[in-house]
Design brief:
Helices cover about 40% and strands about 20% of the residues. It has about 230 residues and is an alpha/beta fold. The protein has a single domain, classed as Vaccinia Virus protein VP39 (Rossmann fold, 3-Layer(aba) Sandwich), CATH 3.40.50. The protein has a 7-stranded mixed β-sheet, with helices on both faces.
Length: about 230
């Protein structure tokens, strides 16, 4: 399930890309399909990095030399200034108390005219989750803030970035999280949670036409994630 639209980025052979907070590697797997692109993934959780490496190894034809995965903190990236042509930071900043330090690092390692893609939970669906469940909003390592659109735009504008596209993704995941917040956000035994999860997994694997069109229609109204595409000025 990709949040970033790689077609918008128009990455070319030789480009160097960072997925900052790569988790188990969903966007790394997308980058693996772009010929000649070199990509790096960093995360603080070694368990997630191990899963990311294992999943990449299962993809036929992946060039090991083009991929590097390592444990690192987004607030102190182990890369030189202006190292990357593109930086992706998807569903990460909402977890970080000192998010401005993290953004400063993303800016530092990006080349002039480079592309920066940031996604965070959208305000309205996330606010409902917080209202429905105290445990959800107080979970250790969970979301420490809810972003309004202007907060991200103004933060990157202060660094001289220009936003050239905003879109919304994953509308069909919103009811799933609302249900979980109502019945207990870690309650996987509830029948509504179980069957909705089966539906989402089926959709991810099969990509049925009518479900994909339905989500595209709903995304502007209730997409779970808001995705910003910036260029470094």
């Amino acid at each position: 399930m990709l949040t970033v639209d790689f077609n918008e980025l128009k990455l070319q052979s030789g480009d160097v890309v960072l997925d900052a907070g790569c988790g188990t590697g969903r966007h790394l797997r997308g980058l693996a399909g772009i010929p000649g692109v070199k990509y790096f993934g960093i995360d603080r959780k070694q368990e997630d990095l191990d899963k990311a490496s294992a999943s990449l190894n299962e993809i036929p034809g992946v060039e090991a030399d083009n991929c590097q995965i390592q444990k690192a903190d987004i607030r102190q990236l182990p890369f030189a200034d202006a190292f990357f042509d593109c930086v992706i930071c998807s569903e990460v900043l909402e977890h970080i108390p000192d998010h401005e330090q993290a953004v400063g690092e993303l800016v530092r390692v990006l080349k002039p005219e480079g592309l920066l893609v940031i996604s965070v939970p959208r305000y309205f669906p996330e606010r409902i989750c917080w209202l429905l469940s105290r445990a959800y909003r107080n979970e250790e390592g969970g979301h420490v803030r809810i972003y309004k659109k202007d907060k991200i735009l103004n933060m990157l504008k202060s660094y001289g970035f220009k936003c050239w596209k905003i879109n919304h993704k994953h509308a069909l995941h919103v009811p799933y999280w609302w249900i979980k917040c109502m019945v207990g956000h870690k309650n996987e035994e509830n029948l509504l949670v179980k069957y909705y999860k089966i539906f989402l997994e089926w959709d991810i694997m099969k990509k049925p036409f009518w479900v994909r069109r339905l989500e595209e229609f709903l995304n502007p109204l209730m997409g779970k994630s808001i995705v910003f595409y910036f260029r470094k000025g």
